[in-house]
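Homework-ish question, so no full write-ups if that breaks the rules, but can someone show me the predicted structure for this set?
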Amino acid sequence: MESIKISDEQLLSYLDGNGTDAERKALIEKIANNQTHLNRLKELEAVHLILKNQAGVEQLSKVFTNKVMAGLHRQVSSNLLSPKNGLLLLIGLVIASALALLLASTGVFDQWHTLINFNNGILKTDWVKTPTVSYDIKFVVKIIVMINALLALILLDRTILRPLFQKRADRLGL
Amino acid sequence: MITTTQEYSLIDRVIAGEEAQYAVLVDKYKSYAFTIALKVVGNRAEAEEIAQDGFIKAFHYLKKFNREAKFSTWLYRIVFNTAISYKRKNKIQFQSIENHIEYAGKSDDEIEKEEKKKFVTKAIEKLTEADRVAVQLYYIKEFSLEETAEMLGQNINTLKVRVHRARQRLADELKKILKEEALTL
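A: Not a homework solution, just the prediction itself:
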C-alpha cells in the first residue's frame, strides 16, 4: 500500500468546508484506503460535530435589558483586585508602615543622614550659589509611611468598602 | 435590524443624554454578550451577571468608543475581559453545563454519540483557558474569525493555531478515552 502523508491540518480544513469540490474529493480518495487516516478523520469529525452542536447563541429574556437599564448608573466593581487580595495587601502595607514607624521611634535611622552639596556636581558655577541640602533617612521613611497610608486608604476604599456597600445596595435593591 | 450608521447615531443620542436608547443596543447584543460570558465561566447565573456588568461598563465608557472597530466587537471585548477578571477574582473552576446522560429508551448509536459528547465536553475542561475559549468562540458562526481574534486580543494566526491545537488535543483525548473504554469491556 502506498504510504501517504495527510496532516491533521488538512483533515480539519476539510471538516471546516475549505477547498474546492475537486480538492475535497481528492483528499477523500487519497485517504479512502488508509485506515489510520480514516480513523483520524472520524475522531476529528466527532470533535468537530460536538463543538458545532454546542455553538448556539444563548437567548436571554427582555428582563435582562430592564435589569441593565435599571443599573446603568451602578458602579461596576473595579477589576483590579479581589477583596481578599486587597485585604492582604492592606495588611502588608499596615505592617510595613508600623515596622518603619517603630524603627524610626527607636532611633534606628537617627545616625543615617548626610549632606548633598550641589556645588560639587554638574551645577557648580561661580554665578549661582546652590544650597546644601541635609539628607535625612528618617525624613524619607516618614514620607514613605505617609505614601503607604495614602495607598492603604485607596485600597480600603476600592477593594473592600466600595464592593461591600455595592453588594448591600444591590441586596436592598437601591 | 439596524445598520452601523444607525447604530452610531444611536450611540450619539445616548451620549447626548437619551439613555433610554441604550436599551436598543442591549436588546441587539445581549444574547451574544451572554454567550461569550458563558463560554468563559460556564455558569448561567454568573454569565448573566457578567454580561450585565459588561453592558454597564460599555455605557460608562461609551464616550471613549472611537469607532475604529465595530461597536459589537468593542462591546464583546469588554464583556470578555470582564468575564476573565471575574473568573480570576472568584477563582471559578469552569464546569460544562451538559454532563448527564439518560440511557433509557435510546439506541446504541445514540448512546455512543452521547458518550462521545460527554468525553469531549470533559476534555474541553482540561484545555487551557485560552485554547478552550478560542475553540468555542470559533464555532459560533455569528462571530467572524477577525471579530473573535479582536475580542480575544490576539491576531488571526494565533487564534487559528489555538483552535487547531485545541481540536487536535480533543481528538487525542477522545481517542485515548475510547481506547481505555474498549480495554475495560
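Now go work out the reasoning yourself. Hint: The first strand of chain A starts at residue 113 and ends at 117.
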